[in-house]
Structure formats: structure tokens, C-alpha cells
Specification:
The protein is of the alpha/beta class and about 200 residues long. The protein contains seven helices and seven strands.
Length: about 200
């Protein structure tokens, strides 16, 4: 299974493109495509990237916000430093109050954009993985309640399953516009979807 995945990865056009364009992950193109469609980030924004390693989404965020903006990436795993001085890295569990306080200190209390391509530890059992995904989304949503500025935007990953519609319906109450989508760079066989919330109501 592992060797087959390695072969598929090497033949993946987005994997090859990421290598040639010096992106840290093929996942960079997911955010790039989502932002092109929904205008999530703009110059000067503060962006908080939850579950940021290896840094593919943070790279796209840095391109969008420019030198005037700030990007904060958080992950349990090490994130290799970026050349840009306006990118901050926190190694830790973003579900913990301690790490959330560190985020708050860096962004001075609020952010214009919250992004998360975080995935729970997958078991391979669809229902269990779906429930873990929902728990993670609820955590990200709670963090958004605390740090996302009024009118702010959010993107996060969700796995399809029994609680998918209920979760999306609950999030619709928090944003003036809420869309669910699957960018072209997302693997077709993957159950992942992306929730895009625009203009946070606070």
C-alpha cells in the first residue's frame, strides 16, 4: 500500500508542479484555487493557519498578504522557517488554551482570515474518521469565535459523513456566505471537502 501510494504521488501532476514551483506541498494549490474563486485573502491581512505543517498553505497566504500582512502557522510538527519576516511559527497543539493564547498575543487579539487544512489522525474506518473530523471542525469553529474579526473569512477541511450536513448548517449561522466545495487539486477519491465561510457575523 505504501509503495503504491509513493508511485501515485510521483505521477500526480500537482505533486510534480509543487516540486517545480518550489511549494512545500501539493496542498498549496487547494488554497490557491479556493482563494481565486472566493477571494478569501487580500494584501495586508492577518492570516492564522491551523495545522500548517509542512507550510504549503502558509506559503500561499504569504504571497497574498504581502509584506504588510502577517501569517501565523501552528502545528504539532516542525514547520521549516520561511524567509519572510512576517511569518510566525508556533509548534504545539492548537486545541490547547496555552497555544491559543500564544496565537492571540501575536495577532493582537484578532485575525481577518482563519485557514485550516488540518486532518485528524486517520484510522481508515470511515465513520470514526468522520467523527474525528467533526470534533476538529468544532474546535476550529470555537477558535474562530474567539479570534476571527467581524467580516472575516475562514476555510477549513471536512470529511463527508453522517454529521456533514448538520455541521455545515450550524456554520451557516456564523457567516453571511458559506459554501462547500472541492477544489480541482483535491484528489477525486478523497472524501475531503472544504468549507468556505465569508463575512463572519460577530
Amino acid at each position: 500500500m505504501g509503495s503504491r501510494w509513493q508511485v501515485e504521488k510521483k505521477h500526480d501532476p500537482y505533486y510534480k508542479r509543487a516540486k517545480s514551483e518550489n511549494y512545500r506541498s501539493r496542498a498549496s494549490y487547494k488554497l490557491k484555487q479556493l482563494d481565486k474563486k472566493y477571494k478569501i485573502m487580500k494584501t495586508g491581512n492577518t492570516v492564522v493557519d491551523l495545522g500548517a505543517a509542512p507550510g504549503g498553505w502558509s506559503q500561499i497566504a504569504l504571497e497574498k498578504v504581502g509584506e504588510e500582512g502577517i501569517v501565523v502557522g501552528i502545528d504539532l510538527n516542525h514547520i521549516k522557517p520561511f524567509e519572510e519576516e512576517n511569518c510566525f511559527r508556533i509548534r504545539g497543539d492548537f486545541t490547547s488554551p496555552e497555544i491559543q493564547n500564544q496565537i492571540m498575543d501575536i495577532i493582537d487579539g484578532q485575525t481577518q482570515v482563519l485557514i485550516s487544512d488540518a486532518s485528524p489522525s486517520l484510522s481508515g474506518i470511515r465513520d470514526i474518521d468522520h467523527l474525528r473530523s467533526i470534533d476538529l471542525i468544532n474546535t476550529v469553529s470555537d477558535i474562530a469565535d474567539n479570534i476571527l474579526a467581524p467580516g472575516g473569512n475562514m476555510v477549513m477541511k471536512i470529511f463527508q459523513g453522517p454529521y456533514y450536513k448538520e455541521t455545515v448548517d450550524n456554520l451557516k449561522k456564523k457567516f453571511k456566505i458559506l459554501k462547500t466545495t472541492k477544489p480541482p487539486s483535491s484528489r477525486k477519491k478523497s472524501k475531503e471537502m472544504y468549507i468556505v465561510g465569508l463575512r463572519f457575523k460577530k
